[in-house]
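Morning run. Coffee first, then this:
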Amino acid sequence: MKLLDNLGRVLLLVALAYLGFYVYGLIMGVFSPGEMIGFTVGAVACVIAGVVHGIRIRRAMKGPDRARITHQLQKYRETRGW
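And here it is:
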């Protein structure tokens, strides 16, 4: 289960990095009109995945697993130094 949690965090960071590079390329005018379609589809997929992830986290925090999730988050924050 820990592997899936870590994989989810990595995929979320990859999606955020992709969106950052997408916005940077969009502002700088790096993409040709033909490339814009593919990159935009990828960016929309990343945004949808992020929204779905947020909804799942919000529902999990309202459910019976709230104490377990909160305990894991506190442990994660302590290892990061918060």
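The chain has a mean pLDDT of 83. Good start to the day.
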